[in-house]
Amino acid sequence: MAFEGLTEKLSAAFAKLRGKGRLSEADIKDAMREIRLALLEADVSYKVVKDFVKTVSERAVGAEVLESLTPAQMIVKIVNEEMTALMGGGAAKLNMASKPPTVVMLVGLQGAGKTTNGAKLAGYFRKQNGKRPLLVACDVYRPAAIQQLEVVGKQLEIPVFQMGQVNPVDIAKAAIEHARAHGNDMVFLDTAGRLHVDEELMDELRNIKAAVEPNEILLVVDAMIGQDAVNAAVAFDEALDIDGVMLTKLDGDARGGAALSIKATTGKPIKFAGTGEKLDNVEVFHPDRMASRILGMGDVLSLVEKAQQNFDAKRAAELQTKLKQNKFTLTDFYEQLSQVKNMGSLSDIAGMLPGMSGKNLGDLTVDEKAMAQTEAIILSMTPEERENPSLLNSSRKKRIAAGSGTQVVDVNRLLKQFDMMQQLTKQFSGAAKKKGRGMMGLFGGGGRRRGGFPF
Q1: How many helices (H) and strands (E) does the chain have?
Q2: Alpha-carbon span 125 to 210, nearest angstrom
Q3: pLDDT grade, residue 432 (50/70/90)?
C-alpha cells in the first residue's frame, strides 16, 4: 500500500500527543523529531524535510496550539495543511490547446512506464472528458516499443500513429497533421528514454519540442526509485522546462519520498498518478487527498469517484430489488465481485477509509486470493447452477472444484456463505430498505477471519 510505512510512523507520533491533555514545547519538539525521522526514512529529500519540519514547528509552538483544548488535533491539522502545500496545494490540470489538437509530450527515463502510462492517460481523457486521442510512436530505438504502443492502443481502442524507424521529429510533425485531418483533439507523443540522463537524449527531445511546440511536457517517473526520481525530475526540468509530472507505480511505493519531494524540489506539480497495472489504473493527483491518506485520515472523495466510475447505478438498483425479494443469485454476486475488482487493489480501497490504513486494518484485512478463488468457483458453474444452486449435487461439486482448481470443501464453503447471506438478507431486508444500505453493506465486510466473504 502506498505510504504505508510513513503512515504508521506518523500515526504513532500523533498517538503519543493525543495521550496528553496539554502540550509543552518539549512535547512538540519530541513529536517533530519523530516526524523528521519518519520523513527521512520515507526517502524524502533532506532539505525538504528540514524546511517542512521548521515550518510545522513554528506554527505548532504558537498560542493557537498550546492554548487549544485539543492540541494534538491542531498539530495533525497543521501537518495536514503543510503536507498538502508541500505537494502543490491543489490538483493541477494539463495545459489544453485553445485550438485542437492538444499535444502532450511524454518524456522520462527508460523503464519509467511512458508507453503504458501514456496510453492510460489517453484512455482517461477519452472516458472522462470525451476526447478523441491519438497515440504516437516516437520511440524508434527501444526494441518492440512501437509494437507495445500498438498493443495497448488496441486494448483501449485508441488509434496509434507510427512511421517505423525514421526521425522522431518527422514522426511527431506528421502525427499532428494526421490528428488535424482525422479529428483527433489530443495527441500523446511517446518519446524515447535512456537508462540514464545523457545529452544525446536531451538534444532529441529538445528538437521534438522545438518542432511541434507541445502544450504539455509531462515527465513520467517511477515512484519506487525514490530520490532518483527527484533527481531525474530536476534534470529533465532543467533541459526541457517540463510542465508537470506523472508518478507511476505509486501503489507499490510504501515510502512515498518522491511524491513528497518533487514539487518542492522542481516547482513543477504532480498531475497524475499510476496506481496499478491495469490500463484504467490512473488518477488525477490531489495533494489534499493524498495528505489525508498519508495521515491515516482516509480519502473518501476518491473512493466515491472510483465507485461512480465502476458501478452501474441502474444495475445496482435492480440488484438491490432482487435482494429485498430474496432473488439474488450467484450470477448477481459474481457481477458485484467484478465491479469491486475494477475499482483496483482492495487494500488501497480500504486505505481510503478513515482510520483503515496500514496495520490498522486488523480483522478487516482483505484476502484477494480468496476473492479470486470465489470468482473461479462461480465461473466454473453452468448458468443454470448459478441461478439455482440447489442443483449442485456431489458430482457437480466435484466438477466445479476440478474446473476452478479448488477442493469440494471450498465449493461447499462458498455455497454455505451464500445461503447465510440470503437468510440474513431475508431477515434484514426491511432494515436495509429504511437505511438505504448498498450492496457492499450486505456482504459482511468482516474478511475471512469472521467467516464472511473475502472483503
Answers
A1: 20, 8
A2: 25
A3: very low
**Rounded Cα–Cα distance for residues 370 and 337 (Å):** 12
Is pTM, for the whole model, over 0.85? no
**Burial environment of residue 389 by CB neighbours within 10 A (0 to 12, 13 to 18, 19 or more):** middle
Residue type, 267: G
Predicted confidence (pLDDT) per residue in 343-360, tens digit: 655 556 655 555 554 444
Cβ neighbours of 349 (radius 10 Å): 19
- CA-CA distance, 386 to 332, in Å (whole number)? 9
What lies within 8 Å, CB to CB, of 361 at 6+ separation is 347, 350
Q: Nearest Cα to 293, choosing from 273, 309, 308, 279?
A: 273
pLDDT tens-digit series, residues 321-343? 666 666 678 877 777 777 666 66
pLDDT band at 408 (very low <50, low <70, confident <90, very high): very high
Question: How big, in percent rounded to 5, are the helix, strand and coil portions of the chain?
Answer: 60, 10, 30
Cα 51 to chain centroid distance, Å, stands at 28
Query: Contact 111/222 with Cβ under 8 angstroms?
Result: yes
Half-sphere exposure of 72 (CA within 13 A, CB side): 14
Cα distance between residue 272 and residue 236, in whole Å? 17
For residue 21, what is the enclosing H or E element? none
At residue 392's C-alpha, the angle toward residues 389 and 395, to 5°, is: 165
Task: Report which of residues 135 and 91 the model is more confident about.
Answer: 135
- Secondary structure (3-state) at 447: coil
| Amino acid identity for residue 171 in this structure | I
Q: What are phi and psi of 273, to 5 degrees?
A: -135, 135
